[in-house]
Task: structure prediction
Amino acid sequence: MSESVWLREDRPRRDAPPLTRERIVAEAVALLDEEGAARLTMRRLAERLGTGSTTLYWHVKTKDDVLELALDAIFGDVPVPPPGPEWRTGVVALMSGWRAAMLAHPWSAAVLGGRPLLGPNVLARTDRLYGALAAAGLGGARLAGAAHAIANYVIGSALMEVGARGGADERDADGYLARVRDRYPHLAEHGRLHGDGWDAAFAQGLEYLLDGVGRPGSAARPEAQELR
Result:
């Protein structure tokens, strides 16, 4: 992967042609929402913008640039929770918003891997997560590890849900498991996660994770200083 778009200085705007980065990103998000990341090419994006590839390349060097910018743009829609007296409330609100953004843009979870995520919207929300965990009494490697676990849980949950939406009919899957119930007795007894159960399962899983963050051995306090 080439150098992140966030690590390069912008060209002076006075030299720029009429096309703007903001317009490029908005059109890229629309294209990604409609057709997915596999269909995104610089040529197709230029065509949608009604411009030539040369003009587009003046603003963004590669498809990776476009994906990084688009990812940061959608995370700008995630509300940042205000400071509060209980650290878990802020984390739940922030991570629920993060998940909602990825589900609204199904291509996003699949293209997150291997990207530095240095855009201002992602960094602002990651900083808020760090602030909440610091308010819980974590610091250093413990804090970074907890933030990593929480973020990966949210990304993985969204990725699994998006995949399930596009998979085989759930009745077919349930029918198959009924036929092979002797091989998988626990699945047969307790059932699979269905389409109307994703929200509750996500919320419960996040609570389990935060219970671990807040246990005495983690050095996190259930009630601590205000979210910073």
In short: The domain at 78-218 is CATH 1.10.357.10 (Tetracycline Repressor; domain 2). The mean pLDDT is 85.
